[in-house]
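Long-time lurker. I teach an intro course on protein structure, and each term I like to show students one example going from raw sequence to a predicted 3D structure in token notation. This year I'd like something fresh instead of my usual example. Would anyone be willing to generate the tokens for the chain below so I can use it in lecture? Attribution to the forum is fine with me.
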Amino acid sequence: MAKYPLAVIPFSGLSPAACEALAAAIDDAVEALRKWQLPTGPNTRLLNAKRRLLKVSAQGSYGATPPELYETAKAILVANDFYGISRTMQDERAAPIAKELKLALRGPLSESATKNNTAFDIQSQFWFGTVLAYSGLHPAVPDTKKTKPDFVITVDTLVSCF
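-- Reply from a regular --
Happy to contribute to a lecture. Here you go:
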């Protein structure tokens, strides 16, 4: 692990002062989300994350108590994931994706339950889709109301469901 610490712990080099740059990246994510008419108001998880990251940067500390450290960790995760997700969103709004992302953006930084999923579950699902997209696999989201795979990838004649 010592040879590749950043591969295992990707945020190990993120100082409290650098949290300001991560907070600024949220603005780019918000711009992409607004194009899809997704919630970007002050009570979304994304802007809650931005406020926490700016506070961490200003105080020069991740926090002093376990709840503060937990909130900081969640803020870093939310900011990083939604920045990546927003970079893979196409210009044309996709209703099934927008519906789920709307749920993922709601509420506090901690896990908040929706009818069928938690906001974090949906966030994780689209983070995985982002990884697939960055790898050049072009995942598609099936538009169906039935139980479905999260993503479908077609390569030549091979169809894979995830």
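Some talking points for your students: Residues 1-9 have pLDDT under 50 and may be disordered. The chain is about 55% helix and 5% strand.
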